[in-house]
Amino acid sequence: MSPLNFITRTAPTGPVLEIAGDLDYAHAPQLHAQLPGLDLRPGQRLVIDLAGMEFCDSTGITALLAARNHAHAARADIALAAVPAHTLRVLRVVGLDQVFAIHPDSGAATRP
Amino acid sequence: MCRTGHRPDPHEPERGDTSDTAFAALLEDSAEELYESAPCGYLSTLMDGTVAKVNTTLLNWLGLERTAVVGRKRFTDLLTVGGRLYHETHLSPLLRMHGEINGIALEIRRPGGGRMPVLVSGAVKYGSTGEPLLTRLTVFDARERRAYEEELLRSRKAAEESARQARADRARLQDALAVLQQSLLPATLPPVPGVDTAAHYHTASPDRLGGDFYDVFPLDGTRFAFFLGDVCGKGPQAAALTSLTRYTLRAAALHDPDPVSALSTLNTVLHERYTGGDPRYCTAIFGVLDPDPVTGRVAVRLASGGHPPALVVRADGQADFLATPGGLLVGVLPDPHFTAAATTLGPGDNLLLYTDGLTEARTGEDRTALYGDQALRDFCAHRAGEPAPALVLALTGLLDELGEGLDDDTALLAFGVPTRPAPGPATKNPS
User: Compositional bias (Basic and acidic residues) at which positions (chain B) (predicted)?
Assistant: First the structure.
């Protein structure tokens, strides 16, 4: 088990939340807790950078969906960047590759 | 307190004989005074127990005059009944054998019928020829200590009671969880004419209500509906969602058994029920079995919402996933796309539905080494032609073998067409 760490930075498109560690049953609530603190304005794009994510289970995917709901409630968009191969496969199985904009890295995701 | 200190006493500017004398006076007056007013009781007894000498401290505790004690009472007369017994059975023999005792807990009698816990130590004084002369005893006030011990004892009893209560609560909770768990799954599957059915549910943890579900139920005289799925998360919230999902699908199917319609109804319910910061969703395959009593073949129509594809295992050894690409998780979007598929099962064919607890089971230390779709397909292909219950039994054995690697709940549901006509009304009366 790796602890979950967050780094938030600001790109021209809006906030970028870098997630490192395990996004699982034990740690996913920490992502939920991060959401209200994000400075997300209408028309911006919340980018979640998963380059450092080591593991993601169904509760982790729930947390990503909560982030999506949070972004939409702020009338903003959401995009995932650098999704690990295994998680990307799961996202395809459950059809979420059609729901999230998925970019190879945060550079591509923050291009206006 | 300490005379070896070098700081002068502020009230005694001149150090010297005067201060030393004053200090000696403060310190101690005489050995007699030390004996009489010591912070513990002293007494000496003759070898028959008669009190020969006693100090004021002990007399004060006893509330007795010296004249009433010395030469008139034995040590045991000062003790409670219990203390007297203990003296006879333990203290006295110990003294005779070892010549001393240490920290024996007794109770002395106090005026007005009260009692006072004490700790008694003693030593026998011997004469020049080794004959015992008298016994010297010290008596320490043990009231504080006794209170402390009683408090400890009370605390321990309370802790033991809490632990017992916790064990009972836990047992009751597990019973309740087991009952609830059963309510999430059908106790038995209804017999489907011309079809073998088999199911298995593997619980990853007895403490966590499962999030997988399945069911089979009749739609009309000939058709049966089935579903199998996996709700996100674990624990009570997941179980509540499982329950909602199960009964919604059942009701939806009776209204409109089209697989995509049933999943769409479920989607509407989940999406409206769980929005905002706590999204809840599930993956599911919903389908309808339509056995043809004439040919014995079973038409299957199903739809998937984000669920791993069903596996069709043909009697001839061919095993293929019944692809349902792009079907979305149920409950995520207000207007999702669900993917339909259809197949027909002939004699010896099996249709297997499963949850990803199986395919995502770890096969090594690394969390990325998973059992996988390919291994499942190969495993089932090797069992082509076996009846559905045998296939599920083999898969149950596989789940056991995966052991620790299987850290999620897993549900299995299989339908097979028997190679020989199965007993039942549909085959007995094929008109």
Answer: 1-18
Q: Which residue has the higher pLDDT, B206 or B176?
A: B176
Which domain range does residue B170 map to?
152-184
Count CB-CB contacts under 10 A for residue A59. Answer: 21
| Residue A18 near residue A2, CB atoms below 8 Å | no
Distance CA A74, CA A67 (A): 11
| SS3 state of residue A106 | helix
Residue whose tokens read 């069911």 = B215
CB contact under 8 A, A95 and B336: yes
B246 and B391 both lie in a single domain: yes
Look at residue B409 in the predicted model and tell me its pLDDT: 84
Inter-residue contact B202 to B414 (CB < 8 Å): no
Q: Do B328 and A95 touch (CB under 8 A)?
A: yes
Q: Which of A62, A86, A93 lies at the smallest CB-CB distance from B279?
A: A62
Q: Which of residues 34-63 of A touch B (CB under 8 A)?
A: 35, 55, 58-59, 61-62
Two tokens, residue B211? 């999030």
The minimal CB distance from B234 to the residues A25, A65, A98 is found for A25
B341 in helix, strand or coil? Answer: strand
Q: What pLDDT score does B428 carry? A: 43
Residue of B nearest to A28 (CA): B233
pLDDT range class, residue B17, cuts 50, 70, 90: low
Q: Is residue A112 part of a domain?
A: no
Number of Cβ within a 10 Å radius of residue B81: 10
Domain of residue A94 covers 5-104
Q: Chain A partners of B307 at a C-beta cutoff of 8 Å?
A: 93-94
Q: Residue A15 above 60 pLDDT? A: yes
* A110 lies in some domain: no
B12: pLDDT strictly greater than 50:
no
Task: Answer yes or no: is the ipTM higher than 0.85.
Answer: no
Q: What is the pLDDT of residues B322-377, one digit of tens each?
A: 988 888 999 988 889 899 999 999 999 999 999 988 888 887 776 667 788 888 99
Residue with the larger pLDDT of the pair B206 and B178? B178
pLDDT higher than threshold 60 for residue B165: yes
Q: Which of A66, A73, A98 has its CB closest to that of B278?
A: A66
Q: Which of residues 228-247 of B touch A (CB under 8 A)?
A: 230, 232-234
In a domain, A81, yes or no: yes
**Quick check: A88 contacting B, CB < 8 Å?**
no
Q: Is residue A71, in this structure, part of any structural domain at all? A: yes
